[in-house]
Amino acid sequence: MGNNEFIDRRSVVAAGAGLATSALAGPALAQPGARKIGYAIVGLGSYATRQIMPRFKDTEHCRLTALVSGSPEKAAKLAAEYGVPARSIYNYQNFDRIADNPDVDVVYVILPNSMHMEYTVRAARAGKHVMCEKPMAISVRECEQMIEACRRANRKLMLGYRSRFQAHNIEAIRIARSGELGPLRTITAEHGFNAGDPAQWRLNRPLSGGGSLMDIGVYSLNATRYLTGEEPVEVAAVEHTDRSDPRFRTVEDTINFMLRFPSGVIANCISAYSSAHNRYRVVGSNGWVEVDPATPYSGQQLRVRLRNQTQEREIRETKNQWAGQLDHMAECIRTGAQPIVDGQEGLKDVRIIEAIYRAAREGRTIKLA
Ligand code: NDP
Fold first, then answer.
1. Are 52 and 297 within 8 A, CB to CB?
2. Which residue's C-alpha comes closest to atom 43 of ligand 1?
3. 3-state SS assignment for residue 78
4. What stretches of the chain show up as alpha helix (H) in DSSP?
5. Amino acid 32: pLDDT
6. 209 in contact with ligand 1, CB cutoff 6 A
7. Does this model's pTM top 0.90?
8. Ligand 1 within 6 A of 341 CB?
């Protein structure tokens, strides 16, 4: 940091997940005592049990009404903890009976990536709206099948892109698109962690569909798209994977990629499974905004540099990112609005992911437009 820079902590910006959805709040939502939207969680793993299920208490419009699991003991224990009746516990075989459960409006798919398509399609056929975790699926073809199944059933499909409901990310989008940084020129976005147990599904291609890019690099990719509001037209990529490392027998480790956007913005992105990264910076002709860390569960910090001064902005969260995400789907169901992170949004990322893999494999830039 140069001598002419300083950090100004006085600047306070109030932002919250509510900003993303408040425009959708109609009279139906304002009614006191309106029936809450019921969610079934499919797959009671780490993300479901540690992050999603505990957040229902922070929502305004949602309740947890059913569980789907391959482990009856775990499901019974969690059902007792969350007040889910025994009749609303399902397994992967009898899941389709959820069609007869009027307490379930939304099925939230939190399974290994290669199972997202099957459970989204089955949920839509059962007449339920679907929330699906990232990455949407392991191929463009599967994403299209999911979109088609929900369209046919006239049900909503939303992706679990929680950062779109996180206050620092919402503020970074506002700043990046406001013009105050001048014309945007470059983005750097870095996401990675040091993958552990070689036996986990994330490192098993048939279940994960790919390595770091599918799991964590998708945050870098998604951020470049939501920060610019543009779709990339060209992609280049370089991969390095040590295949003798037992973690990387079937999936890639590091795959860095470069995206060119129509306005001329060029994004440099890191995706890694052997080193930790979590931040982005958007640079315009007049300055920059960065969120570092950008997409963890908590602890985001936002800094802006303008006129040779760097300022840390304190952002007040009015609602946590998970409550914002869950409530957004509820609001969309009640008002008929389209989720801001719908199936098309998930499909776009998977289409670019396929192009990134191809660019790395073929050693050339790939045109996307
Ligand atoms: P976990 O391994 O912790 O949980 C996955 C769960 O899926 C298991 O507990 C199990 O639930 C069920 N399952 C069914 N079949 C299998 C199988 N063959 N192998 C393993 N699990 C199986 O994974 P995560 O919770 O970390 O990830 C689940 C999804 O959520 C992924 O798509 C991931 O990308 C996404 N995710 C999103 C995050 C975000 O911040 N948006 C963060 C973390 C993950 P049961 O025992 O109940 O049957």
1. no
2. 47
3. helix
4. 18-21, 27-30, 46-47, 72-82, 116-125, 140-152, 167-178, 205-208, 212, 218-228, 321-335, 343-362
5. 66
6. no
7. yes
8. no
Amino acid sitting at position 78: L
Q: Say how far apart CA 170 and CA 15 lie, in whole Å.
A: 7
**Nearest C-alpha neighbor of 341 from the set 156, 208, 190:** 156
Question: Does 219 qualify as catalytic in the annotation?
Answer: yes
Element (H, E) at 208: helix 205-208
Structure tokens at 300: 């985001």
pLDDT on residue 274: 98
Strand positions, DSSP E, 97-148? 106-109, 129-132
Q: Give tens-digit pLDDT for 67-91.
A: 999 999 999 999 999 999 999 999 9
* Residue matched to tokens 């860095």: 256
> 311-350 burial, b for 16+ CB within 10 Å, e for fewer?
bebebebebbbbbbbbbbbbbbbbeebebbbbbebbbbbb
Q: Are strands 12-14 and 266-272 parallel, antiparallel or unpaired?
A: unpaired
pLDDT digits (tens, 9 = 90+) for 311-362: 999 999 999 999 999 999 999 999 999 999 999 999 999 999 999 999 999 9
Whose Cα sits closest to atom 4 in ligand 1? 45
Say how many Å lie between the CA of residue 127 and the centre of ligand 1. Answer: 23
CB burial of 173-191 (b: ≥16 within 10 Å; e: otherwise) equals bebbbeeebeebeebbbbb
Q: Is 44 in the pocket of ligand 1 (CB under 6 A)?
A: yes
82 is known as an active-site residue? no
Tens-digit pLDDT profile for residues 107-161:
999 999 999 999 999 999 999 999 999 999 999 999 999 999 999 999 999 999 9
Record the tokens describing residue 159, joined without a space: 């992706």
Alpha-carbon distance of 172 to 164, in angstroms, equals: 10
